[in-house]
Every structure is written in structure tokens, then in C-alpha cells.
Amino acid sequence: MTLPTPSCTAQNHDSTPATADAYRAGMRMLAAGVCLITSSRNNEPGGMIATAVTSGSSDPPPLLICVNRNASLFEMVRETGAFCVNVLTTQALPLVEQFSSTARRGERFQTGEWSTLPGGAPMSGHAMVAFECRVAKIIDWHTHGIFLGEVTGVFHPQAEATPLHHVPTQP
Could you say which residues of the chain have pLDDT below 50? Predict the structure, then answer.
């Protein structure tokens, strides 16, 4: 199969050096499902909104999440070895706002419906599907930890709901 030749060339497009800011701006243009990563340590739940979630093979089923080392969730997941990936529905927009703001940290887990999974991580009632995971491996990558989680349970709180997507706007 031969791909068509693009109608543009590098000469007629501006290029931006691959700086951290340019990379982040470029990645914000990538459409993705919105997930809430949760964990719990000593009965204190924690969570963060993420689009950096990736599936792997189906046997065994893994999920990969990327967490900044400065995020409170990083140590919680590292120490407990457990997390949940809640794939959110459009009804979860208020949760996204709470979990995206450190100023609203005290509101997290105060609204919405929550269940505790067998491994201890919270599951949102606004998830289409929730994957309970046990940490199989942690890869240190500069500012982040890449957690490879073995999926130990799959739950469907709202399987028929509409998924929440991050759809980028034009720069």
C-alpha cells in the first residue's frame, strides 16, 4: 500500500523546538478518554484526573498509568500497590472539576456515589467501567512514575452511559 504524498512540506510550516512546553501544548491537542485514577491508604482516599492511561495485551490484562512524582497519588499508589482506573461518563464533569483543582482537594470524595473495591481503591458511581489494578512494575521516567498495573477486577457501574472525552480546541 502506498500512502499519498502530503500536500505540505516542512518548508512551509512553522516548527517548534521539542521543549517541555511545546510537548505539553502538543499533547493537549490529543483527543482522549477522561479517567479518574484512585487509590486509598489508611482509609484516606486519593485521586487524580488522567488521560495518560493505556491498555496493553489482553492476557494478562494490564493498564499503564503515568503519575507525576509530585502528585499526592504517586506515593499512595507506590506504597499500597493498588489503584483503580475509573473511565468516566459525561455525568462526571463535576468530579473532573473537583479532582483537577488542588484548591478543591477537600471536596473530593464528598459528592457522588462511591464504592470501595476489594483491593481498597475507591470506585466512582459515574464510571462507565472501572479497572481494579495491582501494581506489577514501576518505571521511573524523569518527573513521572509509569505504573504498570495488572487488572484484577473489571466493574461496570454505568456501562450504557456516554463516555467523557477530552476533545482539544484549536491552539
Answer: 10
CB 32 within 8 A of CB 165: yes
Positive or negative torsion for Cα 97, 98, 100, 102: positive
pLDDT on residue 25: 79
pTM for this model (two decimals): 0.85
State the amino acid at position 104 in one-letter form: R
Asked if omega into 122 is within 30° of 0 (cis), the reply is no
CA angle 31, 18, 99 (to 5 degrees): 40
- The alpha carbon of 140 is separated from its chain's Cα centroid by a whole number of angstroms, namely 17
- Give the type of residue at 22: A
Per-residue pLDDT tens digits for 77-124: 999 999 999 999 999 999 999 999 989 999 999 988 999 999 999 999
